[in-house]
Specification:
Elements (H helix, E strand, L loop, with lengths): L15 H19 L7 H20 L3 H18 L5 H12 L1 H15 L14 H21 L3 H21 L1
Helix pairs in contact: 1-2, 1-7, 2-3, 5-6, 6-7
Length: 175
Amino acid sequence: MYFNLFPSLKNINFSLLNILKISLFYPVIEELIFRLPLRSSKFNFIISFSTLIFLIVIKRLISNVYLAIFLALILYFFFTLFIRADSLLIIKLANFFSLKFRLIFHFQALLFGFLHLTNYNLEIKYFYFFPLFIMNYIFSGYYLGYLRVRYKNGIYLCTASHILINTIYCIVFSY
């Protein structure tokens, strides 16, 4: 940073609301989207899909958080009630995830890494530094995915780890 070689982090106002978003809300949302479907079940797919729809709705369509949560909950309950665990869609998804597990596991870690590039003010002149920034997040994606798959209740471990990582980030960068 002294020689202006690295892009700066986006300016974040470390208010209580933003600290709660970064430390709690975002890790839970990211874990539900990226890691929850690594173990195939009807509820995992539905929760992950509903969370993804919530995120898309709140970022692109509606700025009202309560309305977005309401729509995601309606979608979740609709899918829960009308899609059976032995439905063809769930069986095909489970088969796809079991057959292509390694590919999906690697893809979720890579996607997790690349999406976290949005944490920086990026310019094309910093292009050669992108791998340095991404590697940390890709490694985190693999680690959190490993926790999810390795342990029976791994979703709680990877979510707690993600919350801890983001809380440390908030503490370090708020000073």
